Amino acid sequence: MSKNPDEDTTAVLLHERRIFPPDPTIRATTRIKDWDAELRAGDDIETYWAEKARAFTWFHRWTTVLDTSDAPFYRWFVDGTTNLTYNAVDRHLTTRPDHVALRYTNEQGAERAVTYAELAHEVNRTANALIALGIRKGDRVAMYLPPCIEAVACMLACAKIGAVHGLVYAGFSTRALAERIRDADAKLLITADGTFRRGKTIDLLGVATEAVRECPSVETTVVIAHVQDPEEGHTNQNVVSYHDLIAQADARCEPEMMDAEDVLFILYTSGSTGKPKGVVHTTGGYMVATATTLQDVFDINDHDVWWCTADLGWITGHSYSVYAPLLLGTTSIIYEGAPDYPQPDALWRVVERDKVTKFYTAPTTIRHLMRFGETWPQRCDLSSLKILGTVGEPINPEAWIWYYEHIGRLHCPIMDTWWQTETGCFMISPLPISPLKPGSATKPLPGIVAEVMDVEGRHVPPGRGGLLVIKRPWPSMLRTLYNNPERYKKTYWEQIPGGVYVSGDIARMDEDGYFWIQGRADDVLKIAGHRIGTSEIESAFVSHHAVSEAAVIGKPDPIKGEIVKAFVILRGGYEGTPELTEALKKHVRHELGPIAVIGDIVYTATLPKTRSGKIMRRVLKARELGIDVGDVSTLIET
Ligand code: WT7
Q: Residue 86 and residue 100: Cα distance in Å, rounded?
């Protein structure tokens, strides 16, 4: 392996083998100077995390750092009481009231900045408005919102009064939204009149109104005038205007005393079965671990302008657009729009204008923007950037090198962060001073203990693939699946012996202890970084009258990472015409939302199954990719 990157090489070999040492300026300025020493500091996880927890305001200090007595229902910072919004907003009012907390920008060029003092004002009024609507500690509040300042204020208002928020990504369909609201038994839905996307406005209120019809638990729907002027009013009589509500509300609000283990939010994510899982996160540990990891991995300091491009509706938006940056008192950019609209330099224009210092996005976004060529970023002043990051799927070395050369201008390290909705915070990630290998998320962070194991729970030696597991609990781990503790135990803790958390990913560790994530071990696909279960897509297919059976697989795609390929058996009397193919694609999109983009559909008379009737997707996939099918002793085609 060579030591130094060849500075003017654009050609990247298929197997990138260079190691990128930290830039000297980074090494000189970053807070953490010694990676190994920092990792060792995390060996005693309880001491490590307790030390980190001291950085926050607790109304009552915890008595026990970690309670394992009811494993895998772990409890962190037992008996501690705190309030996340107090720590993320109110706490900064004495030290930095006029510092910009959030800077909203959209593809139309609109801007709105709010300081910590202004954010506190808006959060408090929203909190009082929620109380006026009858929302109390523990009540679930669903949100179907675009990325905007009001959305952040609503999340923080819930956390301030102890209500549990449940955001649903605004690209989900009516059916998906209704299913999540019903599962969470939400009393209130907060939505907006619409969202901007590629020069169009997309109606959200219509979807929300239709969804609420199937959700008897929802007592009130609040609508934020986002694309329209609030003065124009709403044609819909059954909704309450957010702006009217907060106009009448008091701007003072005492924080609710929250137990460290009180629920903060529920966020749904796809699993191997058709029913999405309601991942439950709690207060104290989530606060400590999200802020600590952002601080360490991106070396956040007072002068940073932080930009995580994820939508608020995903865990990345929750942890790293909202909670962690605000807990650290930094400035966080909230962006609404497509990365290539109105032009392929949309993101770089924002970096230039707002002097973004730390930028965090998904590999699929980088690959997409790569297609338009490097002249777009070259025309922008990106000199403010210091550290870059990626998340969501493995980053291919070509995209890594492009990001490094054309966005980071050969001096910004790239933090490839591996984590999940369930983990709440970064788990495997470099620090700015780590030597980087493109495509590897490097090593578990301090206080995180990860390993590669086989299905028997045995250690897998370096160089061989296996299941990525987390061996010790960590503060921001999910606590359960909402209303389904059995599924929580079964999915994450009982797949292999030994009481370890099974992530569902396949990984390999190399001879230097670096982890290489290879993708999911279960029937979960990653389409443009979004997680979606094969069975969700299949049930959307079979809900169409022409379809008898369907099986879907993920097929590698140069931009989206994976695309969906569907194998469909039609009912008698139907023919696989191009019109039907279009109709099916539309149908699935309608059922699940625009994230469910179907690449190919092939019509077939049989599907490979086990004798017990389970579809063998791995056989379809192996055939598709022309690779060895493996053990097919149970295979039949019906
Ligand atoms: C799955 C979790 C956590 C934020 C966004 C996704 C994949 C995530 C990486 C990475 C390789 C990654 C894994 C994981 N993944 N980050 N840096 N390298 N794979 O959250 O929707 O819960 O998906 O995303 O497969 O299990 P999510």
A: 17
